[in-house]
Amino acid sequence: MKVVERYIMRRAFLLFVGALCWTLAIAWTTQVLARIDLVTDSGQSALAFFEVAALIIPTIIPIVVPFAMAGSAAQTLSVMNGDSELVVISAAGASRSVIVKPILILAVLASLLSLFVQNGVEPYARQRNRDLIANSRADFLSLVLQEGTFRKIDDGLFVQIGERLPGDRLASIFVADSRQQGTDLIYYAKSGAVIDQDKEKVLLMNDGVVQRKTLNGDVSVVHFTSYAFDLSTFDADTSGVTLLPKDRTTSYLLNPDPNDPRYQREPYAYSTELHKRFSEWMLPFAFALIALAVAGDARSHREARVHPLITTICITLVVRWFVFFIEGQAKTHPSYAYGLYVVPIATSLIALWFIGTQRTMELPRGWADAISSFAQRVNERLTALKLRLKARLTGAGKGAA
After folding, report:
1. DSSP string for residues in 181-205
2. What is the number of other CB atoms lying within 10 angstroms of the CB of residue 314?
3. For residue 172, is it left (φ>0), alpha (ψ between -120 and 50) or beta?
4. pTM of structure
5. According to the model, what pLDDT value does residue 36 have?
6. 180 is in which domain, residue-wise?
7. What is the pLDDT, as a whole number, of residue 237?
8. Which string of b and e fits 37-74 if b means at least 16 CB within 10 Å?
9. Taking 50 as the threshold, does the pLDDT of residue 256 lie above it?
């Protein structure tokens, strides 16, 4: 590899790693926040939460890698063009392959990374994630019925246990049940225990009262010697973990169990997932070609209405939307599954045509004008806000003086 090619590849690789890390961090944070209840509601340790959080990363990588590849390639070429480096390379008599080759090598590596993660790591990470969540709910009742805590079991159902006694007995039991619309039930009991009754979990309360309040304000209080409160619906069933098609390994998707109830209900979902894993790995390569078609020419971009990076991201978003749309349709119409291969291949061929004919891929004029006007309005508002803040700070400084 030539010195110039190594230089371009090094710059693109550093930007790719940076873009990948930042994008992963943002996407990971949004996914982790949705699972914070694993600790707050289920009483799990922070270690279990961080393990679940770590297992989310492989599920995000195949989605993020293509955009990181496109952004890093477009930004690298755009900066080099702005610094006249592409012009110098062209004037030195170097062929266009000097620019294209390092970007495509990096794109091939990114595609192989996506292929490996999506087929070799992601399914096992998803399965482990589901096992952890199922295990966190396996002993749900014992976690909820903790001494001295007021815990929410379900919407409108709260339980508090004052004290745990020897022999798995409970003392000072309080239950508030407002799940039935128009009726509030409050149970007090001196003692009780969680027992198995006809293979179901039951909270047996002894020596207590139940207070019933209706919507019109009527209140009735009934004393009971013993009362059985059904908890079986809140005891998680851990006899088996339900696996979706995206949780299955590639080998299973190639030969699914015909007796699998979910496969019998949604056979096309399994074939769609298989086609997805064998097609989406081409997206980083296709997106790199888009970046080359947009920003790979050694000429001034002053005539362009939109920055090449924005143009690249907009085009790749449209392509990704088509992939998502076809994937959704293929789950009910199997003929759409072939479109999962058509989109990246057709995108690559179109980008190659732009590169081969030395044309610049740009957004439609209407889109470019809309983006430019929007960016101009944002810039004007930010400038006005900056001036107002500066004026206020100046006035505050004079007042203090």
Report:
1. TTEEEEEEEEEEEEEEETTEEEEEE
2. 15
3. left
4. 0.71
5. 67
6. 141-234
7. 47
8. ebbebbbbeeebbeebbebbbbbbbbbbbbbbbbbbbb
9. yes
